[in-house]
Design a protein that fits this description.
Order of helices and strands: EEHEHEHEHEHE
Number of strands: 7
Strand order of the largest sheet: 3-2-4-5-6
CATH superfamily: Response regulator
Distance between the termini: 22 Å
Low-confidence stretches: 1-23
Oligomer: single chain
CATH topology: Rossmann fold
CATH architecture: 3-Layer(aba) Sandwich
Number of helices: 5
CATH class: Alpha Beta
Number of domains: 1
Largest sheet: 5 strands, parallel
Helix content: 25-40%
Strand content: 15-25%
Radius of gyration: 15 Å
Length: about 160
Amino acid sequence: MDFRPAGIPLAHDTPELESTLVSEPGTKPLDGKKILLVDDDPDIIATIQASLSGSGADIRTASDGNRASDLVVSFQPDLMILDMMLPKRSGFLILERMRPKKEKGQKPFVIMITANEGRRHEAYARNLGVDEYLLKPLRMDKLLSTAYGLLGVEYNVQEY
């Protein structure tokens, strides 16, 4: 399964959107941003990482919940893309550990990705501070536009 987007993420100058950060010429749209990718599927990690590779973000990965919990503290990401079902510690347990410090709409922003379509799981995730809940299989353009938006950067795909 190929999750790659059809284009390249670009930031465009849009003065009418004052809250949107815009890259200066020669910089990348997510320069200075830190993203933590957490999934036990190496293909999903590789695909998301490749999709973000030109963004300028500092990207770290974890394939289990314990490593992810450690990186939340040591790396202090601006954004975490978090799988719900992980070995050693679930995405929910990671969020529960963060909860005293995490409010929805505050860093680290959290996008939970899962194949679980249950409404109770989504409600619980949002109660724990998840900013967006996306179902697998992922639409990469939706994931990237959500990630960029949470980080205050406009996301555009330019098709060739």
